[in-house]
Each structure stands twice: as C-alpha cells, then as structure tokens.
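Course assignment 3, question 2. Fill in each field.
Student: A.L.
Task: Predict the tertiary structure for the chain below.
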Amino acid sequence: MEFLANNNSGKTYLLKDEQKIIKELAQGKRFVSVQKSDEKTVPLIDWKYLLILLVLSLSIEWFTRKYFGLI
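Answer field:
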C-alpha cells in the first residue's frame, strides 16, 4: 500500500492516525463541497382538471335543459 501511495502522490496512514486523516481531509483543497439545487416549477392552476370540470359542468347543464325541455 505504501508503494501504491508513493506512486500516486499520496500518503499512508495507520489506524491510530484517524484524527490526522480527518484534519487533512477537512483542510485539503481536493475535496470541496458542491451544492446543487433542482427546481421544479408547478403551475398554479392545473389546466387539465379545469378543462375536465368545465366540460363536465357544461354537459350537465345541457342534459338538465334537455330533460326539462328548455332546449
């Protein structure tokens, strides 16, 4: 492992050096935090449901007028 670390410009650590590893990773410039945001836009009025409601109400009005002989 030490040979591999030296060939890749890395360092070797022992298990007892865990605080040293954490400190070097936190202060290093290799790992920077990246924040991504995904924004989804939703319309205020859902036009499909509004269209269905409009067609349904007009068809109910037509059937009631037809039933009572107003058309």
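Instructor remarks: The first helix runs from residue 2 to 7. The chain has a mean pLDDT of 86.
Grade: pending
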